[in-house]
Give the backbone structure.
Amino acid sequence: MADDTSARAFAPGHVTAFFSPCEGSDSQRIGSTGAGLTLTDGVTATVEPADRTTIHLNSERARLQAVEYVLNDLSVTARVALETPLPVGAGFGVSGAAALSTAFATNLLFDLNRTENELITTAHSADVRAGTGLGDVVAAARGGIPIRIRPGAPEYGELDGIPANAEIEYTTFGSLSTSTVLESDSQRLSAAGERALRQVRRRPTVETLFAAGRRFARTTGLLSTPVADLIAAVEEAGGQAMMAMLGHTVVALGEGLSRVDHEARKCHIGEGGVTLRTE
Amino acid sequence: MADDTSARAFAPGHVTAFFSPCEGSDSQRIGSTGAGLTLTDGVTATVEPADRTTIHLNSERARLQAVEYVLNDLSVTARVALETPLPVGAGFGVSGAAALSTAFATNLLFDLNRTENELITTAHSADVRAGTGLGDVVAAARGGIPIRIRPGAPEYGELDGIPANAEIEYTTFGSLSTSTVLESDSQRLSAAGERALRQVRRRPTVETLFAAGRRFARTTGLLSTPVADLIAAVEEAGGQAMMAMLGHTVVALGEGLSRVDHEARKCHIGEGGVTLRTE
């Protein structure tokens, strides 16, 4: 189904509303509980055989450790071209989506005969080891609005979802380092994340997700000034907005951002999770 | 996100290649292991409030017990209009897809605040109790090419998938009763289903799925003459085909049926599982 010269796969972006990090020593069991939105904006990976591995992101040479780990773990070298409209390092799970789409395209191109769960596990483990994500890969693999009930790769983790779909707008003021935040105050993060998770499981709606996300950002002290101001403006105009974990990024429901005259990119909540692109 | 007067959801059809029935007394734990293909052809349910429940299938009044059970379990009455291009009772999981799409649309319309897993559980249990399916609902909820490793609703079951996509053609010679087959020789079915499952998990490709499906149909004695002849013709022409469990139905990869001049409907392997239709 791939021609012999390249294969392509897509993985949605994933905006975390809140999370509790779960540490450990096994990268397949490490992860996070929490919830977020997958997006129709994501990462498309095109993989071609090559004698040594190179990675390009939107046509520029890039280092993405999670993608390198995936290729190493699958024992291949390849030229990987990643295309995405999403900002990098701003809370959209680009690293996880890149690892996941690369794993699926690589499996197809090289006839590696892995199952979906095996490829998700490879990408999850790579994202965890690279320090770039704890739950983005399993969320992006599912699509929709994933609730991460138990952390880790498919063998260990457990997912549910909020059955909803909606238009989404987003804008970003810059990046926030995942590893710096995780080192800061993981007990406070965990407690706030667990409370938010209970709230969303009691009433699994998009509105609850946004409310729980806003409260998480406030109580963990992660909310930066421009983000807080813009969320307040959207709320005053009757909209729903929250901060993306982890980035100086605002995500709004419907036309929440353009209604307050803020320039924003539009997309939808993702539907299908990771998919091969065979056209 | 629904207007107040109706809500709509889509669930893909599901063609079982092989299965092992798993009996029990709890409809959430009952199910089957096995594997199959979900299809871009499926069932769209439009649900409207009504004082008493009515169900229409392609505009004709119909009795679908699984759909009635879903509405009962969700404690609502409604007018349900189901649309599908799939033949009914011919191995496409129409009953399960109808139950699943109805559950998602009903949850949206009546603001029932269930999670995705809760709605999948409701639809699975309804399909099992109606005697119309053992694994179609959990497969249709996932999309793609689901491998059902452990049976039952999300809390009990375990799924994996074959990471592939392809064009599919299908044609049907008529229906085959699920309950009659299940009563016939469940030990032989189970043994053949387990062998096929091992085969597909060892080499998770579409080609293996079709080969395992053909062998299952032969060894269980379920293969009827017109189905066997057509599968043989497709194979002689270099194609891949198998029988749908349970229906006198042939499913072929790519243009396998039109290449042997057999009239067939075209679709693709399903991608996104069950989804709300909010346009």
